[in-house]
Amino acid sequence: MGEKILVLGSSFGGYHSALNLRKHLSREHSITVVSSDNEFTFIPSLPWVVMGWRKPSAIQFPVAGSLRRKGIDFVQDTIVRADPENNRVIGEKGEYEYHYLIAATGSELDFEAIPGLGPKKGYSYSIFSVEEALNARDALMGAIDKGSGSLVFGNAQGASCLGPVYEMAMMVDAYLRRKLLRNRFKLSLFTNEPYLGHFGVNGFGMMTRMLEDEFADRDVEWKVNCKLAQVTPENVELEDGEKLKNDFSLIVPAFFGSHAYIGIEGLSNPRGFIPGDDYLANPKYQNVYAVGVSLAFPPPFETRVPVGVPKTGQMSAEMAGVAAHNIAADINGGPKKRGKDFSVICIADAGDTGFYLSASPLFPPRNKLVHKKGKRAHWMKIAFEKYYMASLRYGLPHLDFGW
Ligand SMILES: Cc1cc2nc3c(=O)[nH]c(=O)nc-3n(C[C@H](O)[C@H](O)[C@H](O)COP(=O)(O)OP(=O)(O)OC[C@H]3O[C@@H](n4cnc5c(N)ncnc54)[C@H](O)[C@@H]3O)c2cc1C
Question: Is-cis flag, bond preceding 361, omega within 30?
């Protein structure tokens, strides 16, 4: 009898988990992906959607068809509760049993933690879905059309996805310069990090000084160690009393993992992230694996204001490879892979230039650190998006970035 493997989520972590499982396991074993979303979105390009430089259709494709062609079942459903004692999860539409589970459900956004935060009930914009990016685009262009004003980009306390607001501040600066409007706008960036470019990993060497120089040249005012007190229609208010005029603000909140896991002893930490052992299996429920943002990754460094550890798309896909390998090793026999010491490769776009970063491992001291600024990084990011989307849509071989 074949084993049943269930993958929750169909983004970087879930999609790559399912493909890797299929590569390792014969067809007698069933693989089912259950995800709220049938669209794969290339999230790293959402800042370009905010700028109006990308249409959503260029960075999305439906996953159900391409998974089914590879012998992977797909069900569109949202999981509301995990039940690891009984090897099942409960969705809005049905229940799903498994022998092995990979949780790759990413994050839920904690807007409620700060009064006035977020696009639905508050006065700031966000950038975690196409819908959020399109709303942010309309608001940003509306603010720019007014001819002058104050535009604010920030990371709230507890945030872990820290790079996008740096990209947004630089892109908006580049956009305004091109339109010869830069002198009419004040651009501010605040962050929970203890210094620019800390990125939840104690920094990447000289990147900190590069970013300080970059923002000085771009006349972006920045402030670190910030806690956000509240957002009002008029101001973005920091806990130290500073008020930044809110003609437009884009603020990244802290994350929950998933409320479907919260309160299940041993499965999840209090914020809904799933701890994993060296092989990415949950220490209590060894047939449950977590990859990508779902994996609990306690910050190894103390900071004055809480900063989370980032999990990039590339790291999520790398974890998916490890989890799939280890499930296959359990089923077929063979040695398991260790899933710690991830490396990171990232390209941050600035609109008119870009920053390439490659670091191994994620935390210092490191064996390798490469960072370069230049137009080439900007073009690399565009080329990578196009290749990556084509490789997922049409099954082209992946570039070997260790994914
Ligand atoms: C603006 C922005 C720019 C970024 N830029 C980069 C970059 O340049 N390079 C890089 O490497 N990374 C980048 N990242 C980070 C990258 O997007 C994330 O690391 C990656 O998306 C994490 O993948 P994931 O599969 O863990 O989670 P997610 O991408 O969050 O996917 C979660 C999946 O689970 C599904 N799901 C959620 N809840 C449920 C539920 N209850 N039941 C069923 N399904 C559920 C969702 O529909 C989705 O399919 C960026 C992130 C943002 C926001």
Answer: yes
Q: Give the SS3 label for residue 167.
A: helix
Contacts by residues 372-377 (CB-CB < 8 Å, ≥ 24 positions apart): 373/210, 373/214, 377/347, 377/348, 377/349, 377/353
Q: Atom 26 of ligand 1 has which residue's CA nearest to it?
A: 292
Give the DSSP H/E element, type plus range, for residue 248.
Answer: strand 248-252
Q: What is the CA radius of gyration of the chain?
A: 21
Measured over all CA atoms, what is the biggest interatomic distance in the chain, rounded to whole angstroms?
69
Give the pairing of strands 108-110 and 254-256. antiparallel
Please give the DSSP secondary-structure letter assigned to residue 295: B
The residue nearest atom 1 of ligand 1, judged by CA position, is 164
Residue 35's pLDDT is 98
- The verdict on the CB of residue 41 being under 6 Å from ligand 1 is no
Which ranges in the chain are annotated with CATH 3.50.50.100?
A: 4-107+257-339
Cα–Cα distance for residue pair 339/150, rounded to 1 Å: 44
C-alpha to C-alpha distance for 176 and 182, rounded to whole angstroms: 5
Model confidence, pTM = 0.96
Cβ of residue 160 lying under 6 Å from some atom of ligand 1: no
Which sign, positive or negative, has the C-alpha torsion 327, 330, 334, 340? positive
Fold of 110-255: FAD/NAD(P)-binding domain (3.50.50)
* Tokens coding 269: 């930490």
Q: pLDDT tens digit string along 243-295?
A: 999 999 999 999 999 999 999 999 999 999 999 999 999 999 999 999 999 99
**Range(s) within the chain of domains with CATH label 3.50.50.60:** 110-255
**Does residue 226 have an active-site annotation?**
no
Please identify which of the residues 130, 295, 327, 346 carries the catalytic annotation.
346
Q: Mapping DSSP to helix (H, G, I), strand (E, B) and coil, where does residue 395 land?
A: coil
317 lines ligand 1 (CB under 6 A): no
Place of tokens 């391409």: 66
Q: Is 346 labeled as catalytic in the residue annotation?
A: yes
Q: Does domain 4-107+257-339 have CATH number 2.40.128.460?
A: no
